[in-house]
Structure formats: C-alpha cells, structure tokens
Amino acid sequence: QKFYHDTCFLLICLLTLFVLFFAAWSAQILSRQISVPISALLGAAEQVRRGNLSYRVRVSAIDELATLVRAFNEMTSELEGNARELEARRRFTEAILESIPTGVISVSTDERIERVNRALAGIFPQELAHAGRRLSDLFAAEDLAEIRHLLKRARRTGAAACQLDMQRASGILHLAVTAASLEENRGIVMVLEDTSDLLRAQKAAAWQ
Q1: How far is CA 94 from the centre of its chain?
Q2: Are 189 and 180 a contacting pair, CB within 8 Å?
Q3: Among candidate residues 107, 128, 104, the one with its CA nearest the CA of residue 177
C-alpha cells in the first residue's frame, strides 16, 4: 500500500510538472506572438518618425495584431506616396519660380525671408538678394514702412499691390509690388517687377 501511495504521489508530481511546463511553454509562445509584433511596430514607428517612410513591418502576427500590422504598412505606404507627390509638386513649383522674370520673395509673419527666386538678383544686388534674412535687409526704412503697410493690407484682403520708387545710386528704381497672403496665416508671397523701362518708354511716348 505504501508503494501504491508513493507511486501515485510520484505520478501526481510528474503530472504537475508537465502541466507547469506546458503552461510555461504556452505562455512563452503567446507572449512571443504578442511581444514580437508590438516590438516590431514600435521600431517601425521610430523609423517613420525619422523620416524613413519606406520601412515596413515584416513579422508574422495573428488576429488583431495582424490587422494592426497590415494597417500600419498600408498607412506608411500611403504616407510614402503622399511624400513623393509633395516632393514632385515642390520641384515643379521651384522650376516655375526660377523661370519667371519677376522677383519673388516668400515672407513669414514676422518678416523673415524664407525663399527668393533667381530673378530677384536683377532687382537687388546679387549678394544682398540671396543673403538677406529679413525685409529690413533689402529695403530702406522709408520703403520698408510702405512694404509693411502693403503686407498689412494683404493680410486683411488677401492680396494688395502698390508702386514703390526706390532710390539707388544709379537713379530711381520703379517697382510694381504685389503681395498675396497664404492660407492659414503661413506668410505672404511678394512679387516685384521692375517697371523702370516701361515708365521711361511711356514718358518718351508722352513727350513725342
């Protein structure tokens, strides 16, 4: 009878160990099925945050995690496509800006010069046109006051224009200035056209 009890106790112990082993093994498998996809998603999110929109999650997952992985990959694929489209539009816009003969200045709300085109160097000295950081670097005090008034009207009405006569060592430079306010208060685009030759031609025609 003692042998019978010892045998039963041993079987119970073995069965308990087997159950514990199976439970631990199952828990490890389940945790890997959860932790591995989550870790992969966290790593992918970090890659996207750094700007790597071509990164994709390449792990196997089940149930809701599989849906989450698939949705994440679809989202990054769409973001990558949008980024390519925006880059193509940016290059197209730059090509247009560099090809037009009038000077263009993109100005922030605090009068910082964010971008200029090549034609602006035909109006201002080249080193000043490309090195200027604020409107005060390009315009004298009396001209800057008129520009600020123009920008104020553009913010209020959406667009405004004026004629600006700038004093230069070689004479007076006549500029037709147009300002257009960007959406969501993102700044203003100014277009400057040198009308000096046109005004001289008009005056010559009037004298004739």
Answers
A1: 15
A2: yes
A3: 104
The radius of gyration of the chain from alpha carbons, rounded to an integer in Å, stands at: 35
**Which pTM was predicted?**
0.59
Q: Cβ–Cβ contacts within 10 Å for residue 34, how many?
A: 14
Cα 158 versus chain centre, distance: 23
> Which runs of consecutive H residues, i.e. helices, occur in the chain?
2-49, 63-99, 126-131, 141-157, 196-207
For residue 158, the 8-state DSSP code is S
User: Any residues with CB less than 8 A from the CB of 38 and at least 6 apart, and which?
Assistant: 65
Question: For 81-97, what is each residue's pLDDT tens digit?
Answer: 999 998 888 888 888 87
3-state secondary structure of 138: coil
Question: Which residues touch 41 (CB under 8 Å, ≥6 apart)?
Answer: 57, 68, 69, 72
CA 138 to CA 133: how far, in whole Å? 9
For residue 70, name the pLDDT band (cuts at 50, 70, 90): confident
According to DSSP, residue 162 is labeled E
How far is 93 from 85, CA to CA, in rounded Å?
Answer: 12
Q: Reduced to 3 states, what is the DSSP secondary structure of residue 156?
A: helix
Amino acid at 118: R
Q: What share of the chain is helix, strand, coil (3-state, %, to 5)?
A: 65, 20, 20
Q: How far apart are CA 115 and CA 186, in angstroms?
A: 13
- Terminal C-alpha separation, the chain: 137
Phi, psi of 109 (to 5 degrees): -65, -20
